Amino acid sequence: MRGSDLLDKMELVNPVFIEAADKRPVRKRVGYFKWGAMAACLCLVVSVAVSVMAASVPEFYNALYAISPATAQFFRPVQLSCENNGIGMEVEGVYIHENTAEIYISMQDLEGNRIDGTVDLFDSYSIHTSFGSSGHCEFAGYDSATQTATFLITIEQWDDRAIEGEKLTFSVREFLSDKKVFEGLVDEVNFSTIELVSETQEVSPRGFGGLYFADDHKSETMTALQTSDPIASPTDGVVVTGVGFVDGVFHVQVYYSDILNTDNHGFISLVDKENEKIIPCDGSFSFFDASRKGSYEDYIFTGIDVQQLEEYDLYGEFVTSAGSVKGNWSVTFPLENTVGADGGHIVQ
Amino acid sequence: MNDEQIVQLFLARDESAILHTSEKYGRRLRMLSKGIVNDLRLAEECENDTYLEAWKSIPPHEPRDYLYVFLARIVRHLSLNVCRHNKRLKRSAYICELSGELEQCIPAPDDCGCKIDDLALQEIVNGFLETLDEEKRNVFLRRYWFMDSISEISQRFALSESKVKTMLYRSRNRLRAYLNKEGYDL
Fold this sequence. Notes:
The structure holds two protein chains of two kinds.
Chain A: H1 3-9, H2 15-22, H3 33-56, H4 58-67, H5 69-75, E1 81-84, E2 87-97, E3 100-109, E4 125-129, E5 133-143, E6 148-157, E7 167-176, E8 180-185, E9 200-203, E10 207-209, E11 222-225, E12 232-235, E13 238-246, E14 249-256, H6 259-262, E15 265-272, E16 278-280, E17 283-288, E18 295-301, E19 312-320, E20 324-334
Antiparallel strand pairs in A: 1-2, 2-3, 3-6, 4-7, 5-6, 7-20, 8-19, 9-11, 10-17, 12-13, 13-14, 14-18, 15-16, 15-19, 17-18
Helix pairs in contact in A: 3-4, 4-5
Chain B: H1 3-11, H2 16-37, H3 40-57, H4 67-85, H5 92-103, H6 118-131, H7 134-144, H8 150-157, H9 161-181
Helix pairs in contact in B: 1-2, 2-3, 2-4, 3-4, 7-9, 8-9
């Protein structure tokens, strides 16, 4: 028997118990005036101190939020806009319907052009509410005239209670921009003439991908191609650093520079020259360079032997960026509709 | 109209029984279902299916003294099935969470079917619930019968969430010990 069976069988419980459990319990009345007055004084002192600290000390707010989200949000002062590192953030509008709140937030570079149409919050945003909810943030649009990017935050509450009037805090620590996407043949790699790397190295992988590593083939150390001189650089920040066989399995090694700051990454495939069919890699593993800033990735293709190699071209999809812009942007606002039923903005 | 009269209408195959049932218990059943499926439209479907099941079950059943619980048991069963078969609802995770908690009570969980019949299991569960004081029993049932969230239970009983969690944890341990003591092999 499993827990799910027992959950089902709970329906066998005596109806008298069920009736009793379904009745509203009488609320306990606690406290006397004296204790109430003392508690009120204590609350006043604590609330003044807490509100000052919550407003001015982010660490204190985070600690308080971990203990009691509702209390932390209660003390968080409303701040509809902020500016840091020359970037402004502002709440544009809030629309609440049923158990969902949709919030538009804009970010604008007030000093330069660090925000563009490719801006990406780099998973550095956080959403704090006082109630149980799930939420996410997505890019909504970019106005090149004002260099303003808009993001849509969608929050869905878990419980059945009104969220209007509750406060929400949205924070961002960094973002990427000037992202570039390369998709195409890596012409500089010619499998007919390329010198295959025969030396290997033992590395500690930082991650695995692909079905090849779904069941086995994973271990704490992996055998990768020995890094060679750059063979090709299809786009800035991406270098092919090795092509060869490890234990009879075909590897293509690519280096991505400064990944923690740029999120540079990509995918490698082979293209059959005869029918242009794309053969994706079966898996890949990545490992840091000596400085632990850049990362190598060995892409693995099974079932390819050395005689077949000239039948293929190398195809790559790479995403790179200029690097992240760091800062501390945070807005706190009440969840109150700023959009009327007719779609027009409510004048505050 | 009292429960006995409504049940009498069911027994007489009078379709107004459903109307009276709906008027008297519809909202409670709908809310109970919504608490499980977290979707009002599906809760309404479960409510309507409950009337159909009740129509098919009375007779032979004659729940004159426990009509609401009889209906609630049906709607709970239907709602649980909806959650398990409709992954889109994202409620299966919550049901898994509750199942996982209850699994802690089973001395030797396995994938075989239940080895004891419903009557014996009913005795075990009710015997255990009798050992709990009223508040603990109600909290336990709100969690595992009505499938309330910890926060709903804490609000309902004016208890802190940690107190509710502790209470449930201890109750689960007691159920496990009870099952062991009684020598039941589930």
